[in-house]
Amino acid sequence: VKACDMVKNCPPIKNPKQSLFIVKEVIQHLPLNMGVSLLKNIKNAGVRFIAITHHDPKLHEGVANNNVEPGGFYPNNIFIEPFNFKNPIFDVSDFIADDKKRTMGNLLIFDLQQQNI
After folding, report:
1. What is the spatial distance between Cα 43 and Cα 47, in angstroms, rounded to a whole number?
2. Which of 9, 29, 36, 78 has the most CB atoms around its CB within 10 Å?
3. Hey, how many other C-beta atoms are within 10 angstroms of the C-beta on 68?
4. Does this model's pTM top 0.70?
5. Could you tell me if 109 and 49 are in contact, meaning their C-beta atoms sit under 8 angstroms apart?
6. DSSP-assigned letter for residue 96
7. For residues 90 and 93, what is the distance between their CA atoms, to the nearest angstrom?
8. pLDDT per residue as tens digits for the range 46-83
9. What does the alpha-carbon distance between residue 59 and residue 56 come to, in Å, rounded to a whole number?
């Protein structure tokens, strides 16, 4: 398996219309411009679905998309600038016990081709 830097480019995808990329616990550890670049590259490769971490502002304090150094952390909100995702297809938190939801970022699934990233 060869490593790749998807912030710079996305490798060819065999069946992009039938693909799901899982971006769990990644975006919130990247500077905003790198996170946007990562998502654009995945979308431009034609990938249809993406599962991505989101921190619900109702459950987590200080949720905001803040610039960090690579490897830093911020509790990200995938619905606001600079990501502006909309219309999640599936919310994994529907299957997580309420007392556990505050301890982790949630995973939401979107049709990536419908997002204006």
Report:
1. 6
2. 78
3. 17
4. yes
5. yes
6. S
7. 9
8. 999 999 999 888 888 888 899 999 999 999 999 999 99
9. 5
